[in-house]
Here is the input.
Amino acid sequence: MNKLTVVLMMTGLAVAAGPAQTYTGVISDSMCKLDHKMMNLPPDEKCVRECVRIGSKYVLMVGPKMYGLSDQKAPAAFAAKKVTVSGTLDAKTGMIQVAKIEGAK
Here is the structure.
């Protein structure tokens, strides 16, 4: 393959993924989502971390909508906190390819 072919293929992949966007919501886990009463581990931050420790995944909850997060390390610092996630959403899988996570007001 020549360089032009590789560049064109990479450009096509970037376009297929869609533009980078920002999403503001709360970092939670895929098991509890927004309701942490089931685990009976107040506060919510402790519940989120414990659920992830036993196999759940960090997710971003935007209202009732749950988005998976490609980065499973950075969300640990924001468990049960409101954040803004920058990245690209794969609409088929509901997964955000995370570029950046920062606290939100």
In short: DSSP finds two helices and five strands in the chain.
